[in-house]
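Format notes (please read before filing issues)

Several people have asked whether sequences and structure tokens are stored in separate files. They are not. Every record keeps both together, in the order shown below: the sequence lines, then the token lines. Line labels are part of the format and must not be stripped during preprocessing.
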Amino acid sequence: MAAPASMAGRCASGCTSRATPLYLGTGLKLNFSAPATGDTAFEEYVSDPAKPVPYRARPIQPMGYSEGLTWSEWLVDDQREASGRPDVLAFTSEVLSAPMKISGQPNGELNRFH
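Then the structure lines:
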């Protein structure tokens, strides 16, 4: 259900939010300012289907939704381990000076080359 027009852009506590773009920059940096003219407009890597990126830290626990099993939590697991792989790109920002809420639908362009 969409929020009423009077609530659009407002936080649950009544604060007003403002859309601020985040940019994927050169050197795997996440920036709040647009890339400068002449900066590299892309990052690239080689994906090997024979070595898929695991979505859980190894050893992967048994799957299921029974008590004691953590399968239902995999989307919120700490997935930093994957960032060390050559087929994963991880962009980082400078240290944040205040809490930040990231929301909305991502907008980007992905190109696949053969």
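For reference, the curators noted about this record: The longest strand covers residues 23-25. Residues 60 and 104 are 31 Å apart (CA to CA).
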